[in-house]
Task: structure prediction
Amino acid sequence: MNLQKFIIRTLLKLPDGLLVRMSGGKPLAIDGRILDARAQFLAAQGARQPSITTLDPATARSATSEGLKLLDADPRPDVEVKALAVPGPGGPLDARLYLPVNMSRPLPGIVFFHFGGCVIGDLDTCDTFCRMIAALAGCSVLNVAYRLAPEHKFPAQVDDAVAAFRWAQENAAALHMIPGRIGVGGDSAGGYLSAVIAQEARRKGFAAPALQLLIYPVTDWGWKGGSMDSCAEVYPLTREIMDWFGAHYLNAPSEAEDVRVSPMKEPDLSGLPPAIVVTSGFDPLRDQGAAYAEKLKSAGVVVAYRCEDSLPHAFTAMTGVIPAAREACERVARDIGTVLGGSA
Result:
């Protein structure tokens, strides 16, 4: 463990009251929710740093990668990891396969996509969480890195995600996955891509995922009001950063009306796969995630929805320093095992 990581972890073991006093003097309350004290401390520190909107995308990727390494939990020892290359429409996509140790039979599977606004992030962004899913859900997890904007704008990310999921279906045996029990999932941009895959399966006629796991997903890139306003300045995702992501990802603002950009715009959600939708209380995306869960329910889709009220966006990458984030991620992993029938 490097010195900076040690210092952060030591500070975040201080009592809640002291952490709050060190980060504003009183608990941060928005929309009737109170932010976790450790998350508030991190938010206060983050507010002192330059926003990624002041950086070029390559520099932003490097900066966020280094920052996330300080917050993530240590790798689990009970999961085997194998590097893979998945064929994509623009060339091979880096991927990792996660399997519970001593796995002796095919397992339910899930293809996972990381967060990052389709601009930042990589396999490391969700590595710890994918290990947790494999161990606690009893699943084979395929973590796929899709192309990023602005070097590759819409629809490159959607094309990559769909291709990766279909490849996993076609190569289930090699991935130790049970055909017909392969889900798709992700957080933020990864949740958005997962929602689109579920819709594209119906539109294009390929086998649907057994589950769509949508963790604080982007469901409408043009969403206005509600939590987009009330949580507009909450670390680590602000409305300004969302605008920055959108400007890099989309070829034109009008593309936000495309159902492959904003799955909320699809008028008919009937017949889509079961969904686990998890939002965070202190997140500009909270309301659109909740609205999509409700729209799915209204269309007759089986939905398990939960808001982790005390947590911010990107909590899946904070399991090393915020106990509530680790507990929330463990709940999600066990939910996946319940829906897909894993061994956890």
About this structure: The first strand starts at residue 29 and ends at 30. The longest helix spans residues 323-340. The chain has eleven helices and ten strands.
